[in-house]
Specification:
The protein is of the alpha/beta class. Helix content is 38%, strand content 17%. The protein contains 22 helices and 21 strands. Strand 14 and strand 15 form a beta hairpin. The radius of gyration is 25 Å and the shape is globular. The protein starts with 5 loop residues before the first strand and ends in a 7-residue tail after the last helix. The structure holds ligand TPU and magnesium ion (MG).
């Protein structure tokens, strides 16, 4: 029996999830988490979204965190569920998303009685799932003592929000119902504050460097959003008058309609003129960047460290000087009023700026090309759009889009796990019901997680999905081809009918020509529910940027081993 100051462990967790802003959670049941789910279901301010499998539920939690800017939660059963979830949680770690992964666990008596349990590895190890998750989370806790539940749950939630990383909470199946303290008032703040002395020194030093530079530029990076610094980056952009670029995995974090926006800084596949201005600048401030083989096109975009300032989530790295414990958002906020406006890089960019080539539509019977597809998607974009671009040529096609102010763009470029977009799209629709997301998904990627379209239909969400049927793993073809890059064709559009069964409201169509695509888009836009358009594209039709990027990445991958 609970009294006025106690509750159950499961209810405690539900209350805390509600308190930090969650309205939904993603779940797949199993006997280790059923009692826990009963307790969570009792909280009527949280809605359960039932997924087809744990990997997709994890991707959905990733998409939900992207959509809301807050945390998300996913509930699974022990081992068979948890280990399926692992890949999605690893992706959330790579992408700085505070996903709270909750797994049921063995009964607390099992360990003492040396019991061998179902769903496990078949050995007497009761901690392996937590040990595995500890590698892909910022905190991994097991709750076997109900008295410890409040501190462990609170600490895990605090860690997720503070470090913008996933956490793992395992609750023994016979503890979900056990009595513990009711949640007491406390705050769950985000990232901690900077060291004031270090912050001041960093701002002084960087303001001095930038104000003495001839042609400084600003580049937005992927950490801007996770660490709550987008708005202060905009303030700095407005104050500086510098030319501004975005890194590819930060596309859309800076307003692409801003008068000083040049485009994507991505080495040889970046926006025309953008790389030239960044590379010829005498000082670049990169805000929250990650320099990987993917974001630098196989390290072809080599930024000269002597001309770069990196404002990282917790430090500022200048040529020959590093300032520690300086938070990105605070740094940008304090730097903005200290900057003397300088439009030299913008003037230089204007001189070489190229207008994007005009592309007119072909006759209705013209076979569809990726270029024409991109131009049709471009026409669909509004301030309410969110584009979800899956790994593959969809990255490069998505990168061509010119995003209206207010629209969003999602890409999993650090982790790049194919199939991510189907689950992430589900979570995004749930987390941002005011938007109508547009997903660009390759056929190969789709085959990994296709069944989650069923959940999108089940909850009658309303994304518009472009399934690009180009008959294979084209991105892999461009990096390194072989027979493994061919895939079995499916009648993708027909899947929507299969998943609709008697009660679904999904609509699907197929487009092989420009005319068919125009018709399909018209129907999709007027359809009040999930819309799915299978577009048929030639196997060799891919964006020029994929070809260039693929050869650079292949060269980087193919470096011979160093031998002594
Ligand atoms: O547009 P396109 O054809 O390039 O995209 P599609 O059809 O989705 O093919 C993607 C091919 C691909 C693979 C097989 N891209 N990356 N990979 C490697 C890979 C394998 N497994 C996971 C989970 N993630 C990966 N990135
Ligand atoms: Mg493909």
């Amino acid at each position: 029996m609970t009294d006025h100051c106690t509750t159950t462990v499961g209810s405690y967790l539900a209350d805390r999830l509600e308190e930090i802003g969650l309205k939904h959670y993603f779940a797949v049941p199993g006997d280790y988490n059923l009692v826990l789910l009963d307790r969570i279901l009792e909280n009527k301010n949280l809605e359960m979204i039932s997924c087809c499998n744990e990997l997709n539920a994890g991707y959905a939690a990733d998409g939900y965190a992207r959509a809301t800017g807050g945390a998300s939660a996913v509930f699974v059963t022990y081992s068979v569920g948890g280990l399926s979830l692992l890949n999605a949680v690893a992706g959330a770690y790579a992408e700085d998303l505070p996903v709270i992964a909750v797994s049921g666990g063995p009964n607390t008596n099992s360990e003492a009685e040396f019991e061998m349990l179902h769903h496990t590895l078949g050995k007497l190890d009761y901690d392996y799932q937590r040990d595995i998750f500890s590698k892909v989370t910022a905190e991994a806790v097991t709750i076997r003592d109900p008295h410890e539940a409040p501190t462990k749950i609170d600490h895990a939630i605090q860690t997720a929000l503070r470090f913008r990383k996933p956490v793992y909470i395992e609750i023994a199946c016979n503890i979900a119902d056990a009595i513990t303290s009711k949640p007491n008032v406390r705050s769950f703040g985000g990232p901690t504050a900077s060291d004031p002395v270090s912050l001041q020194a960093a701002v002084d030093h960087v303001a001095n460097l930038l104000n003495n530079a001839a042609k400084p530029v600003l580049v937005s990076g992927v950490k801007l959003r996770s660490f709550g610094a987008e708005e202060n980056f905009h303030k700095l952009a407005d104050a500086s008058g510098y030319a501004i670029a975005s890194m590819p995995n930060a596309k859309g974090f800076f307003d692409e309609q801003h008068p000083n926006y040049m485009g994507i800084y991505w080495g040889p596949v970046g926006s025309p003129g953008c790389g030239e201005i960044v590379d010829s600048s005498d000082l670049c401030l990169f805000a929250g960047p990650t320099f990987t083989d993917y974001t630098t096109t196989g390290h072809a975009a080599l930024v000269d460290p002597s001309k770069v300032i990196q404002a990282r989530p917790n430090s500022v790295v200048c040529p020959n000087q590093t300032f520690s414990n300086v938070k990105l958002s605070e740094f940008l906020e304090q730097l903005a009023p200290r900057i003397t406006a300088n439009d030299a890089s913008m003037v230089a960019y204007k001189r070489i700026q190229e207008d994007p080539p005009a592309l007119s539509a072909g006759a209705p019977e013209t076979p569809l090309s990726t270029r024409q597809l991109v131009s049709r998607v471009q026409q669909m974009l509004t301030a309410d759009s969110a584009v979800i671009a899956e790994t593959g040529d969809s990255w490069f096609n998505g990168m061509q889009l010119n995003l209206p102010t207010g629209s969003r763009f999602e890409i999993q470029m650090q982790y790049g796990s194919i199939g991510w977009s189907v689950g992430a799209l589900l979570g995004y629709c749930i987390g941002a019901p005011e938007r109508r997301p547009i997903a660009l998904i390759g056929d190969g990627s789709f085959q990994l997680t296709a069944q989650e379209i069923s959940t999108i239909i089940r909850y009658n969400l309303n994304p518009i999905i472009f399934l690009i049927n180009n008959g294979g793993y084209t991105i892999e073809v461009e990096i390194h081809d072989g027979p493994y890059n061919n895939i079995k064709n499916w009648n993708y559009a027909d899947l929507v009918h299969v998943f609709n069964a008697a009660d679904g409201n999904g609509w699907s169509g197929k487009a092989a020509t420009e005319g068919e695509l125009d018709e399909a888009i018209k129907t999709a836009k007027s359809h009040n529910g999930p819309a799915f358009i299978e577009v048929l594209i030639d196997r060799d039709d891919c964006s020029k940027n994929l070809l260039v990027w693929g050869s650079h990445v292949a060269k980087n991958n193919g470096r011979p081993p160093r031998v002594n």
